[in-house]
Amino acid sequence: MAVLPIRVAGDPILRHKTHRVKVIDASLQRLIDDMIDTMRAAPGVGLAAPQVGSPLRIAVIGLPEQEVIVLVNPEIVRRSGERLVEEGCLSVPGYVAEINRSQSVAVKALDRHGRPLRIKAKDDLLAQVLEHEIDHLNGVLYIDYLESMEQLVKLEPGELAPQGTKREGGL
User: Fold this and answer.
1) Hey, which residues are catalytic here?
2) Edge-to-edge strands, sheet with 83-89
3) Class of the CATH domain delimited by 12-154
4) Distances in whole angstroms, Cα of residue 10 to Cα of each of 42, 51, 60, 69
5) Reported pTM
6) Any idea where the domains of the chain sit in the sequence?
7) pLDDT for 21-70, tens place per residue?
């Protein structure tokens, strides 16, 4: 397992829609393990494959004190409501901004072993991270929801992110 370099805004891979995973094999399992190590080292609460240079439809989510969730080929099947959240991103280091996210989200995916998985989240960090990471898989960054880059707030080194991770980390 390895900690991989995280791609930052401006890298073209972050703007491309990812490819569906067709085969879950040993190389894919290594990528998933490397993504988990990279997310934890960042530190962050989520990481999508394009952020480590892979064009595959994979995301990992590691909320504090919860088991890591691995999503292969995730899709949002339902969303409702709207809420204002402060968000950051490992691919836009050193900044946060307030954006609108859904109140509740339902996602279908496969787990790392190819078994069907459904997740429902409402009014919590998981709902926000699901949307954020699936956005990455569609070539969308949270800054795309801003009317102006002037809405970005520069962070001080060591300042805590809204998710309780170091703010220079993020989703």
Assistant:
1) 133
2) 83-89, 92-101, 153-154
3) alpha beta
4) 19, 11, 22, 28
5) 0.91
6) 12-154
7) 999 999 999 999 999 999 999 999 999 999 999 999 999 999 998 999 99
